[in-house]
Amino acid sequence: MPELPVLTVKDFASDQDIRWCPGCGDYAIVNQVKKMLAKTGAKRENTVFVAGIGCSSRFPYYMSTYGLHSIHGRAPAFATGIKIANPDLNVWVVTGDGDGLSIGGNHLMHILRRNVNVKILLFNNRIYGLTKGQYSPTSETGKKSPSTPMGSIDLPLTPLSVALAAEASFVARCVDVDKNLAEVLARAEAHRGSAFVEIYQDCNVFNHGAFKHATAKDVKEDNIIRLEHGKPLIFGKERNKGIRLTGDYKPEVVELGKACKEDDLIFHDEDDEKLAFMLSRMQHPEFPEPMGVYYAVKDDCYEDLLTLQVTDAIEQRGEGSLEKLFNMGDVYDVE
Amino acid sequence: MGTGTKQDTKLVTTSEIKSAVVRFAGDSGDGMQLAGTQFTTTSAVIGNDIATLPDYPAEIRAPIGTVAGVSGFQVNFAAESIFTPGDKVNALIAMNPAAFKAHIGDVEPGGVVIVNESEFGKVNLRKAGYEEGYNPLDEGSFDQTYQLVKVPITRLNAEALKDSGLGAKDANRCKNMFALGVVYWLYDRPLDTTIAQIDSFFGKKKNLPEVAKANIASLKSGYYFGETAEVFPVRFHVAKAAIAPGKYRKITGNEAVAMGLVTAAKLAGKDVCYCSYPITPASSVLHALAGMRNFGVKTFQAEDEIAAVCSAIGASFAGQLGVTGTSGPGLALKSEAIGLAVMTELPLIVVNVQRGGPATGLPTKTEQSDLLQAMFGRNGECPVVLVAAQSPGDCFDITIEAVRIALQHRVPVIILTDGYLGNGSEPWRIPDPDSFEKIEVQHPKDPEQFQAYARDENLVRPWALPGTPGLEHRLGGLEKQHLTGNVNYEPANHQLMMEVRKQKVERVAKVIPPIEPYGDASGDLLVLGWGGTHGSIFTAVENARKAGKNVSGAHLRHLNPMPSNLGDLLKNFKRVLIPELNLGQLRLLIRGKFLVDARGLNKVQGRPFLVEEITQAIDLMLDDEFGDREYLRPHDGVVRLEDQDYDFTSIDGRSG
To answer: What domains appear along chain A, each with residue ranges and CATH number?
Structure first.
């Protein structure tokens, strides 16, 4: 057997110049994605990146795989069509907080509940970048922006809560400049079904520092929890803090020590939907924000079940014959 | 209409007639669509030509007994070729006062009116909006104008089923079969086709043998009632039509679209990916295809109209036959995505079963008012190919043609049908599955010199499929650089690409047939139509020609691009009349494109043209009576010059 050529990170770069603003968090993500593809032995020809509209959605142009830069908010629908037509393709959706949660919120919800085997990377920068800085559905209330000079008055969405409520089978969060991005991408790649990954991404032009709490070296370990399946929820630079359930089943931050042992903490369980939802509600500054895989369960994929219906129908009724189809119903002869 | 009578064994004469129009009307829960469909199937099976017009309310169960809740089914069946469901009703079956009230005006004087007398009580009369104490059945004038036959259908049906074991409510649901039985007797039709279908549906499929038995009992009771009660002085017989020999079945436009898609996909070696969101009157295309999984058909009920078209485009990108189906409001939602398909130059089929608009409009009624939306309803210069079916059966042929164009020219094709075609039926001569030309589609494999936006002589770019090594490329909605397909904002490139996309669609004209007029190739008047109005226009033109008038007709099945000989044809006529079920959309295109002083007959009443309306417009055109009017409109089935000006301030709006 001839040895298959091994693709490197560079092999996944297209010949187009990247046009994101210098210093944009998207650079780190595109590099990590290329690395992940090289590492997992992905084939360029079998990989398709689908995006909607927005800064993040230019992503497909910078990859040397197949790509579709579609229309605003609709990438999940295009991706679903691609998977229905050819389930063998390795399909990734790249979207943002505006594209995925505002104009395309409906499609995101439905691709997740169908569990189409598509990986969805939602770059959350909590702002509209491409249209120059309006507030987004994940901007904090009171956000001052060109369209909200007196501050925004609506509550933001929490992407992971939305994904969990939409019956997603894989939900994770990571940060553009953190080492956990590579781990989460690899886990998403390996998941069979809709994988939803929220990536905290810094828009250094319109919303710089939105995730400072999760990126600044001196404070980040006090502000995030790195999730590990089966392990207690411990965090902090000194790894001396944890999350415990109160008597009325609410999370609370506790200091580890005599009064609180590791065994008293919550242990992470990727199969536990209720825990995942609770984790998704933990927000800075009240809580450290969990990073990593919140939830991962095995379930049937939409396109597999659809293909199965086709094979079942052929098995039961025989391969469709036009002759039979045309002659269905009341056929009569005219002489 | 009678051409001869003979004495039956009983004292009932049978009158031989060439054609008849029967309308079943009742409450929307009365099963009138089913009764009408059964009557149609039986008529087709015994060899009549048929054309139908189902007419039902938008509400599944509108308030019982009201005029708003009346559901009607009209069938025209004949011993000769017919192309419309008929202008005037020869026999009306009215299951309640509301149905009577809503439809009596369409019955020809002297026509048969069978009323379900049991339902003409005080309450139902009030619900139908009749004045307290008034019952139209007591009115002498109805009796004199029509052959009014009062049958207590509800009561007789209940008696017929008293030992059936069915509860009163279930038994009552069989009364449509009783009514159908009466009409079968009146028109001398056999019961066997309907009995077989009742058996197979209720008996076998639903496993409700007692319900099957009851329905059959009702049907027979109705038939025997006609035979024995001697309430009809005459019954009618419509002989077989002289139809071209062959095997036939009845087909609706929506069934034909579904079968056309499956056929075309087979011819192209593709799978149908039909992505759709339920919408009246297009949903039955989705239902039909969902039942054809063994043809490799994948149906996807998307979360909305936009997701439907986007997933269809995704399926095309991945190499299958991406199709979406909808009606007017859905087409509006799909417009941005159709633009993407134009930009990415991927094949896409959009089926638009038109209904009355704008907005939600008249969901269950027919109209042709999406022509300009289909033609222009997108941002930017965004040409697509546009075809329109002219009859239920033609929905099959036009669909195959549309798929051929879309796959070979990498362009979205919008198929326009309408509620009338989609739900209406006609006999369909079953084609030989081997008689169709294959649809050749090439997918490049060779990475050598591959360019995603290089073009062939038809300006068609290669359709390279994900999964092919070395042909990786990125598509998208941003302007493409000529040849490479990379994002490009240069002025000259944008101009070039706009012209390329326009020219690419225009070159489709090379593969569509020329338009062939019926009648003469030149003369005083050309009646030009498109889409579902073909039957009425064709019949009116043929009638006019038989009467010695210098009129020809032509019907457009290709609206963009139009057949290349259309301009010459138009020039050969002194006058051009364009009847449309809109306010002049094809007329605008024809005037703009060919600088022809075309005039219109424009009806937007939720119903197809009557032949008579077109006939009158033809006469007015020939007599140069239109004057400065760009179009005329019919009122109550009549086109009169004095009816043309609305007084928008008066209560009914009508002048004079």
So the answer is: 10-210 (3.40.50.970)
Give the Cα separation of A306 and A82 in Å (integer). 13
Angle of helix B175-186 relative to helix B32-45, nearest 10 degrees, comes to 30
- DSSP strand pairing (B246-252 vs B425-429): antiparallel
In B, which residues are within 8 Å of A323 by CB distance? Answer: 433
Would the CB atoms of B430 and A86 count as touching at under 8 Å? no
Mean pLDDT (whole number) for A98-113: 98
Same domain, B233 and B99: yes
Pairing state between β A241-245 and A251-255 = antiparallel
**Which pLDDT does position A3 carry in this prediction?**
62
Q: What is the DSSP letter of B188?
A: T
pLDDT in tens, A227-263: 999 999 999 999 999 999 999 999 999 999 988 999 9
| Contacts for B508 with CB less than 8 Å, ≥ 6 apart | B385, B405, B409, B411, B458, B561
B272 CB near a chain A CB, below 8 Å?
no
Contact assessment for residue A280 and residue A158, using Cβ atoms and an 8 Å cutoff? yes
Helical (H) or strand (E) element with A170: strand A170-175
**Both structure tokens of B543:** 């009638």
pLDDT of residue B20: 97
Q: How many C-beta neighbours within 10 Å does residue A323 have?
A: 11
Query: For residue B445, what is the nearest residue in chain A, using CA coordinates?
Result: A45
Cβ contacts below 8 Å, chain A against chain B, sum to 220
> What are the chain A neighbours of B468 within 8 Å (beta carbons)?
45
Per-residue pLDDT band for B62 (boundaries 50, 70, 90) equals confident
Considering the domain architecture, whether residues B415 and B453 belong to the same structural domain is answered as no
State the pLDDT at residue B1.
Answer: 39
B655 pLDDT exceeds 70? Answer: no
Query: What's the token pair of residue B105?
Result: 């005006």
Same domain flag for B469 and B533? no
Q: Quote the Cα angle for B37-B42-B48, to 5°.
A: 105
Tens digits of residue pLDDT in B43-56 = 999 999 999 999 88
Residues of A in contact with B263 (CB under 8 A): 322
Give the rounded distance of the alpha carbon of B179 from its chain centre.
26
pLDDT higher than 70, residue B29: yes
Q: Cβ of A334 and B246 within 8 Å?
A: yes
Helix axes A105-114, B305-317, angle to 10 degrees: 60
Q: How far is CA B488 from the centre of its chain?
A: 44
One domain for residues B571 and B632: yes
Q: Is B289 on the interface with A (CB under 8 A)?
A: no
- Between residues A2 and A331, which one has the greater pLDDT? A331
Q: How many domains does chain B have?
A: 4
**Do B194 and B324 share a domain, yes or no?**
no
Inter-CA distances, A25 with A22, A177, A215, A243, B132, Å: 9, 7, 11, 30, 77
Q: What is the pLDDT of residue B60?
A: 74
Q: B449 and B467: one domain?
A: yes
Express as a percent the part of chain A with pLDDT over 70.
Answer: 99
* Partner residue facing B433 (CB), from A86, A326, A331: A326
Coil, helix or strand at residue A177:
coil
Mean of pLDDT values over B553-561 = 98
B5 confidence band (pLDDT: 50, 70, 90) = very low
For residues B562, B567, B569 and B573, what is the CA-based torsion angle, rounded to 10 degrees? Answer: 130
Question: What is this structure's pTM?
Answer: 0.94
Contacts 24+ apart (CB under 8 A), B479-485: B479/B343, B480/B343, B480/B453, B481/B453, B482/B453, B483/B451, B483/B453, B483/B454, B484/B451, B484/B452, B484/B453, B485/B451, B485/B452, B485/B453, B485/B461
Helices (H), B443-600: 491-506, 534-546, 566-571, 585-594
* CB-CB under 8 Å, B303 with A332: no
